[in-house]
Amino acid sequence: MKILFLSQRVPYPPNRGDKITTWRLIERMQREHEVTCIAFAHDEGDLEAARTLESKGIRTIAIPHHDKRKRLQSLPLLLTSKPMTLGVYGSRELQRAVDAHAPDSDAAYAYSSSMGAFMLPHETPWIMHFAELDSDKWLQYSKVQRFPMSLVYRREWRTLLGFERRVAAAAHQNIFCTPLEEKIFQREVPGCPSAVVRNGVDLTAYQPSPDTVEAGHLMFVGVMDYYPNIDGCVHFIDHVLPLVRRDFPEVQFTIVGSRPTPEVEALGKRPGITVTGFVDDTCDYLRRAAISVAPLRIARGIQNKVLEAFAMGLPVVGTTSATQGVDGKPGEHYLLADSAEDQARAVVELLRDTERARELGRAARRFVEEAYDWDACLAPVDGLLASCAAARSSA
Asked: Can you give the pTM of this predicted structure?
């Protein structure tokens, strides 16, 4: 089968949330099918990654994308009814590449709604994989931002939802990574087909390492130019950490993630706080953590950072927003805490009771072994692609 795969970023290496999922998807497809990947290259690293994919037998067309420039160029869209997202990720060059390959493909797979836009002119059956329901994300942003950004975000929610309805209706199937996302979709976009294909976790790369744990070391992992991650870390440091330090004054907090903004870098100047920036392997840091924290106040979808901490056998303290996409049970596989006081109380409990922390981590590891192996999670994709091909042949 010939499959056309569209992605906002070159799907390699798997070192951030979207690349983890897209790499796993494309690697699975490539085992039995001929895959052509068309994706945006955001920097030289993406261009190099495209060459690596070529060496792995995956034809890859990387279209340079200048994010800041595209954001500025999208500003006039505020005077129209078009989502700014489509301005940021619009590209005549990428559309030409899709136009050249879609007619000869048996099926296409678009990861994120902005990539689905490039399939609208084509009759090739395709799958729309909503990494997250972006319109809902902008609605969440609008509720926590001040004017005028609250108005801008609310406009993006409204216009993007209209576009998502159009894309969903055109797709052969719509995929979500959690039942919660699918539920929101079915409420906001009724009548369109949908399915859940969960993210997995690399159980080989992420292995428990109890002998390397550093007492009192808290850790957060995530790309640090992403607003929900920034907001969660700032709130944790300002409002949770001081409460924890009443009982454990020497506690350390490390933020591991690429592209830290100036605001995040400034956090690293505070006592007991480290901001690493990009690291080659997050496992090297997670092995040192006593507790993984996921203090996100805005989130949808599944948080890879939570699954990876589970796989490392780490006790996790997470908010509802950070853990709602994971099927684990609070109190059995992780501790659920939303308010600053409850988060601090949960962290202190685990720092004080190390056996409880270890048992929580062991239970989390067992849980992901049973439920989040990548091959098992992505198995439904095979049938969905076959359904696209059947629709193509019967058309």
From this structure: 0.91
